[in-house]
């Protein structure tokens, strides 16, 4: 187990500022704190978490909750193992603070890791830490990040990206995925798994997995609600014939016209939506029942286990049984 400071404790410093997103800070902090209580920690304190801001003191977050902080000067008095720049709408004021940007720039050379959560990527980009590299941020700000820093390859989909000792993560809860990846690197797979189970989050969503869930993608796409009733009907008839012909008949449209309008409106084919909804239903059954994989496949319209496994891997990035094992301790009696 690698420990960078003389005391053997890894100092994780979160940089915040007025308008920082609360969950960008507290989500990863909870992950590191929970790691101290895992069996792998062997009753030793592995992480010491510090919250810092340019001047120190109480900082008001996006939801008006105040967080206490030490100054950047105080934070740097003891070696920093991992520096994490939190995101939030206040980042656009923060990037104009030359002293803050310069302080972050220096940390690349004297910290083992420098990372950003969500919109915090704007700050590490301003510090030049991402020059010539790829990075990610909250999906709403991908284009703005790319426009401000054209020498960075900004990627919309990944949950987090790592280049050497520089990491960036996507929107809000992706910061927890980033923290889990760091915990795994420091303490091993089992420790990270224990933290994920404690927080009741999935371990591990691959860094390259999309920051959107499949169902959220569908819901966000149909702003006009043209296919809302059809989606509700599909969700209640997953065992039925859900071919393009059947779905088109529900809307009194020709199969060709239906398929074209659906793809134009939703962004995916009707068959893709059906598969997404069946996988989503399978996920619920896996964690809320003792049904066998064969039963779940039949009840969600996949017919057989092999088809369910293939679809599950495509959308979730892991096997159905690994997914059940991850959540089973907390949710399956």
Automatic annotation (TrEMBL):
GO MF terms, alphabetically ordered: DNA-binding transcription factor activity; sequence-specific DNA binding
Domain HTH araC/xylS-type: 228-326
Keywords noted in UniProt: Transcription, Transcription regulation
InterPro entries: Class_I_gatase-like (IPR029062), DJ-1/PfpI (IPR002818), Homeodomain-like_sf (IPR009057), HTH_AraC (IPR018060), INH-QAR (IPR052158)
Segments crossing the lipid bilayer: none
Name of the protein in question: HTH-type transcriptional regulator CdhR
Gene this protein is translated from: cdhR_4
């Amino acid at each position: 187990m690698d420990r960078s400071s003389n005391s053997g404790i890894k100092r994780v410093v979160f940089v915040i500022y007025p308008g920082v997103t609360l969950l960008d800070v507290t989500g990863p902090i909870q992950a590191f704190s929970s790691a101290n209580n895992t069996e792998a920690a062997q009753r030793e304190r592995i992480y010491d978490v510090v919250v810092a801001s340019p001047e120190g003191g109480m900082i008001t977050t996006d939801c008006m909750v105040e967080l206490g902080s030490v100054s950047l000067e105080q934070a740097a008095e003891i070696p920093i193992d991992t520096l994490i720049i939190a995101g939030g709408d206040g980042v656009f004021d923060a990037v104009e603070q030359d002293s803050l940007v310069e302080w972050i720039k220096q940390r690349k050379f004297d910290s083992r890791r420098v990372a950003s959560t969500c919109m915090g990527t704007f700050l590490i980009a301003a510090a030049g830490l991402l020059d010539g590299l790829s990075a990610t941020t909250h999906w709403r700000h991908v284009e703005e990040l790319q426009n401000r820093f054209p020498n960075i390859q900004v990627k919309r989909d990944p949950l987090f990206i790592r280049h050497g000792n520089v990491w960036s993560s996507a929107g809000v809860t992706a910061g927890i995925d980033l923290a889990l990846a760091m915990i795994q690197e420091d303490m091993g797979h089992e420790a990270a798994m224990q933290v994920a189970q404690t927080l009741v989050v999935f371990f591990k969503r691959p860094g390259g997995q999309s920051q959107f869930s499949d169902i959220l993608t569908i819901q966000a796409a149909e702003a006009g609600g043209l296919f809302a009733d059809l989606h509700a009907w599909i969700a209640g008839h997953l065992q039925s014939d859900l071919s393009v012909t059947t779905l088109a008949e529900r809307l009194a449209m020709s199969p060709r016209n239906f398929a074209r309008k659906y793809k134009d409106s939703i962004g995916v084919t009707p068959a893709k939506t059906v598969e997404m909804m069946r996988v989503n239903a399978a996920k619920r059954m896996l964690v809320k029942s003792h049904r066998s994989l064969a039963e779940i496949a039949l009840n969600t319209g996949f017919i057989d286990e092999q088809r369910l496994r293939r679809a599950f891997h495509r959308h979730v990035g892991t096997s159905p049984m690994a997914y059940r094992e991850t959540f089973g301790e907390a949710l399956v009696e």
